[in-house]
From TrEMBL:
It comes from Paralvinella palmiformis. It is found in: Membrane. The lineage of its organism: Eukaryota, Metazoa, Spiralia, Lophotrochozoa, Annelida. Residues 320-340 are annotated as: Disordered. Its cofactor is Fe(2+). It is a multi-pass membrane protein. This is Fatty acid desaturase domain-containing protein.
Length: 340
């Protein structure tokens, strides 16, 4: 079933290149300089280690938790995920669709549940990631290795280029959105409540789950799983997979990331066409986020959804793709003749 309420982006070959991002993409370091010595932030290492140990403990508590608690953990995982994918990523960082106030408020709360920095800071880092992809100004530059792009970038001081280029980005649209401004002001208490208290309270109060199980399973275990899945978009989907749209860039199509990150693993497509609200040419296929946005569109809460035309996508695949389709099937000449 095709998505509804969509603005199809330009099909002119020249416009294909200029309409796909808020700012022009820079793929090479403009001011090459020697990388400064890595400065480890030990506080972050201790903090992340403790959270992961708590999550591992929560995983071992799963057999002793009630079935309803398992379902609630999955529900909070999906809220957590959509707060990132439909919220701060596709709505605020890329402006690939617009949302009415009630939906923006809901997504802001879910974003606090994800506990991955406030909307403005997350969007700034992500816009830098796209504008300066795989350069020293990219906060999680995948050329520095899997571990660095996964979580290492959070355990060391930022490269000077990340700070310098990040300050130059236009964030006026975020600063003018009262939802973003208020969330930034109340971020710490909103995280404490949405990420830990709320997920713990519901199973304890409504079906008698122990507060201990609820905190470690629905709180820590769910949070760390969702956090690592988001990190896999920066690491795994930038290093492993096929490249149907542009074989000259790092981001790739990765099924595991697509499935676990509710639609964010069509990453080669996304970096070629960042303004497409679906981050994919396949609509709802393994893309719960697109399904959610389309449902919000039916309710009148999401609108002005941007979508690349099939013609523009086809032209780009022919020009720079690796000849594959989906998650790795390579189209052979005989297959093309059959499809005709």
């Amino acid at each position: 079933m095709p998505p509804r309420n969509i603005d199809v982006l330009p099909t002119n070959p020249v416009e294909d290149e200029i309409a796909d991002e808020i700012e022009p993409v820079i793929t090479e370091d403009t001011h090459p300089q020697k990388r400064p010595p890595m400065q480890i932030v030990w506080r972050n290492i201790v903090y992340m280690s403790l959270l992961h140990l708590g999550a591992i403990y929560g995983m071992f508590l799963l057999p002793w938790a009630q079935p309803l608690t398992w379902l609630w953990t999955l529900a909070t995982y999906l809220m957590n995920a959509l707060g990132i994918t439909a919220g701060v990523h596709r709505l605020w960082a890329h402006r690939s669709y617009k949302a009415k106030l009630p939906l923006r408020i809901l997504l802001a709360f879910w974003n606090s549940m994800a506990f991955q920095n406030d909307i403005i800071e997350w969007s700034r880092d992500h816009r830098a990631h796209h504008k300066y992809s795989e350069t020293e100004a990219d906060p999680h530059n995948a050329k520095r290795g899997f571990f660095f792009s996964h979580c290492g970038w959070l355990l060391v001081r930022k490269h000077p280029d990340v700070k310098e280029k990040g300050k130059q980005l236009d964030l006026s649209d975020l600063m003018e959105d009262p939802v973003c401004v208020v969330q930034r002001k109340i971020y710490v208490p909103s995280v404490i409540f949405m990420c830990f208290i709320f997920p713990t309270f519901v199973p304890w109060y409504f079906w008698g789950e122990s507060a201990w199980n609820a905190f470690f399973v629905c709180g820590l275990f769910r949070y760390i799983i969702a956090l690592n899945v988001t990190w896999f978009v920066n690491s795994w989907a930038h290093l492993y997979g096929n490249k149907p749209y542009d074989q000259n860039i790092n981001p790739a199509e990765n099924f595991f990331v697509t499935f676990s990150a509710v639609g964010e693993g069509y990453h080669n497509y996304h970096h070629v066409f960042p303004s497409d609200y679906s981050t994919s040419e396949y609509g709802w296929r393994f893309n719960l986020t697109t399904f959610f946005i389309d449902c919000m569109g039916v309710l009148g809460l999401a609108y002005d959804k941007k979508k690349m035309s099939h013609e523009a996508v086809f032209r780009r695949k022919q020009r720079t793709g690796d000849g594959s389709e989906g998650f790795g099937y390579v189209v052979k000449p005989n297959d093309e003749k059959k499809s005709d």
